[in-house]
Amino acid sequence: MPLPERKKARGRPIEWSDADLDRLAQVSEADVEAARVFWRANAPGRYDDLLDARPEEDSLLPEAIAVAALAFLWRENERRYVTSITLRTIQPDVVRRVYYEVAGAGRSAMIDVSGAFMNGRITLAEWQLEMAKQIKLVHTTAAAGAQGGWLQMSQADWGYTGNLLKNQYGFLDNFAAEVASGQQPLNGRFVRRAGMYGDAGRGSYESMRGRLHRDAGFTEAQRVLGAADHCVDCVDWAGVWKNLAEIEPIGSSVCRSNCACSIIYRSAAGEVSEEA
């Protein structure tokens, strides 16, 4: 009869300094490659190379035969993905749903690793590092998905993504400390709380879209209710046009990272980014 697997001691959390958080939040070429693999593995089949989109104008270059091999292009002036052969527009809500499916894989991984920690198969520090890894995958794919793909991400965009990541790592650092102190019991709430770090990618996705539309000259924004049981904040905030600086970010409502709302944008000339 095999002996039962020996459980690991819970151990101590990794206590990250502010400098550590800065280092963790940097997005390297290796991080981007890992996120590319993550997207390809978890996006619905027809969209697995969506983030490999090149600018649409590249299809007019002499070497366009290489571009034709890609399924998607990025149309900068409309802030839209288009199919490379028929130039059919991929609507923003479709891209958003595809991203949610990818982020859901990260959420599942966070729940799994949290179960492994609860069952004594890994230490608290190992749990913390694996959570950090999944957080980076979820938020880097959010940023690139909103911005038009990997090739459309500038150094400034990655810097902005790093700021979003640093915030998440700060929350994770506090989470681990609460687990170590016993303030956060190892129960169902612990697992649900861990999964919320996967859902938080939605806020980063919408934040990057806001950045994209601000840079394109849009001046107003409106929150739109998604398909969910909404909290009182989301109901109160939806359907009202506000200046970009005044719009409530996704994730700032009572429902936090469970928020299923999105944001649309309007220019001074009346152009609206997508239908509500």
Question: How would you describe what is shown here?
Answer:
The structure is a single chain. This protein is of the alpha+beta class and 276 residues long. It has two domains: 9-216, no CATH class; 217-267, no CATH class. Helix content is 50%, strand content 10%. The chain contains nine helices and seven strands; from the N terminus they run H-H-E-H-E-E-E-H-H-H-H-H-E-H-E-E. It has helices spanning 18-25, 29-42, 64-68, 92-118, 124-147, 155-181, 188-199, 201-215, 232-237, and strands at 54-55, 72-75, 80-83, 89-90, 218-224, 242-243, 262-267. A four-stranded mixed sheet has the order 1-2-3-4. Strands 6-5-7 form a three-stranded antiparallel sheet, covered by helices on one side. Helix 1 (18-25) packs across helix 6 (155-181), helix 2 crosses helix 5 (124-147) and helix 4 (92-118) runs antiparallel to helix 5 (124-147). The N and C termini lie far apart (62 Å). The mean pLDDT is 92.
Q: What brief labels describe this structure?
A:
single chain, 276 residues, alpha+beta, 2 domains, four-stranded mixed sheet, three-stranded antiparallel sheet, 50% helix, globular
Low-confidence segments, given as residue ranges, are none
What overall form do the CA principal axes indicate?
A: globular
Please write the string of helix (H) and strand (E) elements: HHEHEEEHHHHHEHEE
How many angstroms separate the termini?
62 Å
Residue-averaged pLDDT: 92
What structural class do you assign from the helix and strand content? alpha+beta
Counted up, domains total 2
Beta content = 5-15%
Number of helices: 9
**How many β-strand runs?**
7
Rg value:
20 Å
Helix content: 40-55%
Strand order, sheet with most strands: 1-2-3-4
Biggest sheet features: 4 strands, mixed
